[in-house]
Design goal:
- By secondary structure, this protein is an all-alpha fold.
- It has one domain (11-224).
- The protein contains 8 helices and 2 strands.
- A two-stranded antiparallel sheet has the order 1-2.
- The longest helix is centred in the first third of the chain and has 27 residues, at 11-37.
């Protein structure tokens, strides 16, 4: 009879799941822009996008972490996964509500940590840990980082911490040499050290929102190039 060993992890299906979640993140990043450029935005598209988000960035990461570590604790494991999923749903519902409210100046900030970034954070950290333990085929004690990370992300998603969308930044050479150079450097780093760079980017974004209130407005403008145009979470 098969006996479950929490120390042994089959990396192959987990790696496939991670790549699918990252692919969903990439499509989610661009679908809103495509809709705005083609003038195909609609209330149905917004609601359907949220439904896709809760599956791709809520259910999938929750089951992924449950498979890796949470199933060792049964009830507590299900509770952690459920908290992450519920907070992700609340985050999406709040975003949809705020985006439909009229009569107020719209903001280029996300209120609360975006659920696509939360999922990206979970899978990028998992991928990084897998790269460290590739030969042992086990995440060892590193796997216990994931439940605490999910609880932190759950709180951030429903918090009032503001995160920049970066959707108003011009990434072209003509508009911003610094932004274009940053994109080139990041692309090279991803190509050379993918797991490390990807995890670093998501961690940096998470920490930036926490320290952002103490950064001067001038530095924030230079980093974010904030605009008053409405930003939508794709």
């Amino acid at each position: 009879m098969f006996k479950y060993d929490p120390l042994v992890v089959d990396f192959e299906p987990i790696r496939k799941a991670i790549w699918l979640i990252l692919a969903a993140f990439a499509f989610d990043f661009f679908d809103g822009r495509v809709a705005r450029v083609t003038k195909k935005e609609s209330p149905f598209g917004r609601e359907f996008d949220s439904l896709a988000d809760i599956v791709s960035f809520g259910v999938a990461p929750a089951f992924l972490v449950y498979r890796i570590v949470l199933q060792e604790f049964v009830r507590t494991g299900w509770m952690v996964a459920a908290i992450y999923l519920v907070c992700g749903g609340i985050r999406l519902a709040r975003f949809n509500l705020l985006s439909q409210m009229g009569g107020k100046k719209t903001s280029s900030d996300f209120i609360g940590f975006p659920i696509p970034s939360a999922a990206g954070m979970v899978v990028s950290v998992t991928m990084f840990m897998m790269s460290l333990q590739e030969h042992e085929r086990t995440l060892g004690q590193w796997r216990f980082v994931l439940p605490f990370l999910m609880l932190l992300l759950s709180w951030l998603m429903v918090s009032n911490v503001r995160y920049p969308t970066f959707k108003t930044v011009e990434w072209t050479l003509q508009k911003s040499v610094a932004a274009f150079a940053a994109v080139v450097v990041v692309a090279l780093m991803l190509f050379t050290y993918f797991e490390v760079t990807l995890a670093f980017l998501f961690i940096a974004y998470l920490l930036y929102g926490l320290v952002r209130p103490w950064i001067s407005k001038r530095w924030r403008r230079e980093l974010e190039e904030e605009a008053e145009d409405e930003s939508a979470e794709g």
